[in-house]
Design brief:
CATH architecture of the largest domain: Alpha-Beta Barrel
Order of helices and strands: EEEEEEHHHEEHEHEHEHEHEHHEHHEHE
CATH class of the largest domain: Alpha Beta
Distance between the termini: 21 Å
Largest sheet: 7 strands, mixed
Helix content: 25-40%
Bound molecules: zinc ion
Structural class: alpha/beta
Number of helices: 13
Length: 385
């Protein structure tokens, strides 16, 4: 087994401080063996290793955990984006455009596109990524999307309930029967999670609850798109059902904050969606002050947030959502890990996965201070996200 020493780290950010070392360790080093962290501590005390990387005083962080993406799709919606920027509002209906293109695409084309987006995310420091289905909306097409996604990440999510497909426009409850019956049965072998888009133009609270309960009964973990387009009791429903994460949380009422703060459900904020739909940003400050665990994710999808850049989301969170640079970094790493109920990523401690990202700067503050600049790259990461 080969040991790799990452030496002369100017600042090591760990998201953990219960192991006798500080959360932020200056002048640090890390030893990696077999994809795991074997040792970390002050550089002056670093043990010998077979290989050595010199970080030259730069900042090392846990790789980003992007806990919310929709990467299996075909087609392009730049014209829709252009029209929206010219004043047309965002609705859930544009998803159907991508559904038509995705159904018509070959397996090879879908996988190549998704793999290219995963690689793009990785180049920007993302080492764990969740991928949802949701542009097939038939039993075969949803199972296909998840089968392809499962070759790229273990964090796969059935989002058959993204929108009601055109062929069920007159019978949305019939579509819910399909999702909770044959679609769930065909997709469960390839999915770890189930998700529902519960908002106007998508699924009602009652339909969303039926789908989540069926998914839970099939052994899947629960996630939920809620309160993106307006206030909704869906956030509280997600908490009550034990969802790992409720995502968007753009329009929260005081009762939603109370429910989240007393739970282990993560509030995942997706500021790329607000940016790309020119909508008001969620109030992260209010969530953090209430003690809610907050995650940041890209929501990468061709309609409402076509970015794979976690640093971009961090910059938005700091500039627009009241988060400090440290809070935004934590949300993009440990927060995402909590949203996926993972304790082996998003933190740097002995035994955790050695998913290290290097910032070409002395501090993580530069992630927001230098927006749009490609400063982050993966340093070491075990394969298979
Ligand atoms: Zn989404």
């Amino acid at each position: 087994m080969t040991a790799l020493l990452v030496d002369r780290i100017g600042l090591l950010v760990r998201n953990v401080d219960d192991d006798g070392l500080p959360d932020e360790l200056p002048d640090a080093a890390v030893v990696v063996e077999d994809g795991r962290i074997a040792w970390l501590g002050p550089a002056a005390q670093a043990p010998d290793a077979d290989e050595r990387i010199d970080a030259e005083g730069r900042c090392v962080i846990p790789g980003f955990v992007d806990s919310h993406t929709h990467l299996v799709f075909a087609g392009d919606r730049s014209a829709e984006f252009e029209a929206r920027m010219a004043g047309r509002p965002y609705t859930a209906g544009g998803i159907r455009t991508t559904v038509a293109a995705t159904r018509a695409a070959s397996d090879d084309a879908l996988l190549a596109r998704a793999a290219a987006l995963v690689a793009e995310a990785r180049r920007q420091g993302t080492t764990t990524i969740e991928i949802k289905s949701g542009y097939g909306l038939t039993v075969e097409d949803e199972a296909r999307a998840l089968r392809l996604a499962s070759t790229l990440t273990p964090e796969t999510t059935l989002l058959g309930a993204h929108v009601v497909p055109p062929e069920y426009a007159d019978d949305p409850d019939g579509y819910v029967d399909l999702v909770t019956g044959p679609m769930l049965a065909a997709c469960a072998p390839y999915a770890k999670w189930i998700d529902v888009f519960c908002d106007r133009g998508a699924f009602t609270l009652e339909q969303a609850e039926r789908i989540l309960v069926a998914g839970r009964d099939a052994g899947l973990g629960l996630r939920l798109h809620a309160a993106q387009l307006g206030p909704s009791p869906a956030v509280r429903m997600g908490v009550a059902l034990g969802a790992a994460s409720v995502d968007h949380c753009t329009h929260l009422e005081p009762e939603d904050i109370d429910a989240l703060s007393g739970s282990d459900t993560v509030a995942t904020l997706l500021p790329g969606a607000e940016f790309s739909t020119r909508s008001p940003y969620p109030d992260a400050r209010r969530l953090l002050d209430a003690g809610v665990t907050v995650a940041l994710a890209t929501d990468c999808n061709p309609g409402s947030s076509f970015t794979t850049s976690m640093p971009f989301c961090i910059a938005l969170a700091v500039r627009e959502m009241g988060m400090t640079p440290r809070e935004a970094l934590r949300a993009a790493t440990a927060g995402g890990a909590a949203a996926l109920r993972r304790d082996d990523v998003g933190v740097l401690r002995v035994g955790a996965r050695a998913d290290l990202a290097l910032i070409d700067a002395p501090s993580y503050v530069h992630l927001a201070y230098r927006p749009g600049v490609p400063l982050v790259a993966p340093l070491t990461a075990s394969p298979g996200g």
